[in-house]
Design goal:
Layout (H helix, E strand, L loop, with lengths): L14 H13 L3 H7 L4 H6 L2 H11 L4
Helix pairs in contact: 1-2
């Protein structure tokens, strides 16, 4: 189940910036705390690892 509303990334937004925006909107937490809670490492987000992309897609409803 994905978080609603779906917050797609802006055209010029980095993945880290988008994660921070999603974290603030949905949880009020800083990005690092949100990622920790969702069991996604910051390094995997920055590297766009397959795991991070798939996990974020499932959580947020944004396509990979």
């Amino acid at each position: 189940m994905s978080m609603l509303p779906i917050l797609p990334p802006y055209a010029d937004e980095t993945t880290v910036s988008w994660c921070a925006r999603v974290a603030r909107f949905h949880t009020g937490l800083p990005c690092a705390d949100f990622l920790h809670m969702m069991e996604i490492s910051q390094a995997h987000v920055m590297d766009l690892s397959d795991y991070a992309v798939e996990r974020l897609s499932k959580l947020t409803g944004v396509s990979e």
